[in-house]
# Entry
Amino acid sequence: MNIQAMMKQAQKLQKDMMEEKEKIDKMEFEGTSSFVTVKANGKKEILSVKIEQDSLEKDDIEMLEDMILVATNEALKKVDDTTEQKMGKYTQGLPGLF
# Structure
């Protein structure tokens, strides 16, 4: 394979990777923990936090903080899992690129 063909292939691969990443960035991921739901986008930005108010009492603040933490981490893990799944075909064993 000549250099021009390799460069053209690399440019196509880069374009494909960027298109896939843009799709992931626009996706929404949801994490839940008991009565807390957190939504994040593929850029790992938290979009919303929803709490079932009927389940909450004033003494439950510390527990609520822990549940938000768990739900947020679950949503962000889903972003990482989807990114790795969809981008893995491009990185082929080079984790941490995205």
